[in-house]
């Protein structure tokens, strides 16, 4: 039975010892591997779980990247903006811990389509804030 969001069969989404949520997500992970070897990013993590507000409300972006130059940020490879994802974006704006970059695959390229910047009003104070 086909998936309602046209997700490819699991065999087409496998790479690096795991099955990704989509072929585009798999391809992005392979780009991340290349970026590490090229020195563009220091490291990346697949599917980190992030608490948004309370421990019982979590969201799992596709990646957490740490660039050589710049701050770590989360990446979500999107195909379809579901109502659930829209709710996650709203919660990210309120409780996210770093920027969420949303990318889409267009042809053979990945394009950044949105940046979700958290409102840091609920973040814990640092020594500099005291």
Strand-helix topology:
Blueprint: E1 14-15, E2 18-19, H1 23-38, E3 41-46, E4 50-52, E5 54-59, E6 63-67, E7 73-77, H2 83-95, E8 100-106, E9 109-116
Parallel strand pairs: 7-8
Antiparallel strand pairs: 1-2, 3-6, 4-5, 6-7, 8-9
Would you mind describing this structure in some detail?
- It is built from 2 helices and 9 strands.
- It is globular.
- It has one domain: Trna Endonuclease, Chain: A, domain 1 (3-Layer(aba) Sandwich).
- A hairpin with a 1-residue loop joins strand 4 (50-52) and strand 5 (54-59).
- By secondary structure, the chain is an alpha+beta fold.
- A 5-stranded mixed β-sheet has the order 3-6-7-8-9.
- 22% of the residues lie in helices and 34% in strands.
- Mean pLDDT is 87; it is low at 125-130.
- It starts with 13 loop residues before the first strand and ends in a 14-residue tail after the last strand.
